[in-house]
Amino acid sequence: MKKFNGELVKQIRAENEKQKEQIQLKQKYGVVQEDVVIVEKSSIVKFLVKTIGKFRLSL
Description:
Order of helices and strands: HH
Shape: elongated
Radius of gyration: 20 Å
Structural class: mainly alpha
Number of helices: 2
Distance between the termini: 66 Å
């Protein structure tokens, strides 16, 4: 029974963390709707494409 409780607690904590993160993101972006999920993505790919493009143009 302890194993089950341990896994259940981990799942609940992870869900609570996701909810807290969504609340913070909604405040950050000014989203009022409850049925919206905000996903922040890294822009490293866009950065690399721009950097390589600028480098090629300067040659």
